[in-house]
Structure formats: structure tokens, C-alpha cells
Amino acid sequence: MANLAQWHASPQRGGAAHSDGGTREIRVPLSLFLFDEHQVDIELVLARVEGEELLAGLRSALAASAESSLRTRPEAVQ
Question: Which structural domain, as residue segments, surrounds residue 24?
């Protein structure tokens, strides 16, 4: 059995997150990989509030990453 640390997920190529109008669930198509070898495609299913929390966390992480890269970028030579 593979160690869970050896697995990772990526958004499915060409897939787009969508919402279910009836349940208000958010569905995100993912591909699961083991050692960079594709294993299976699945959907991550989130309640609306979970989707909102994930989006807020992603925005925060992206902003921090952008801010960090600006601080570590070498100054342009004039």
C-alpha cells in the first residue's frame, strides 16, 4: 500500500468547478496521482460554506505568495 504522502491531486485538465442548483454543493473535478502517474479522476464535493472557506483560504495563500515573491525578487538594474 502506498504512503498517503506519495499521492497528490490536481484539477482535471479541461474540467471546471460547478455548482449543483438543487443541493447547492460545489463540485470540483480532480485527478489523483501516485508518483506523478495518473490513477483516477474524481469530484471533490463541498457544501457551499466549505467552498467559500476554501476560496477564502486560496485567495489568502495566493496573496501571501505574491507578496513574498515581490520581496525576494532582485531589484532591476538601472
Answer: 4-70
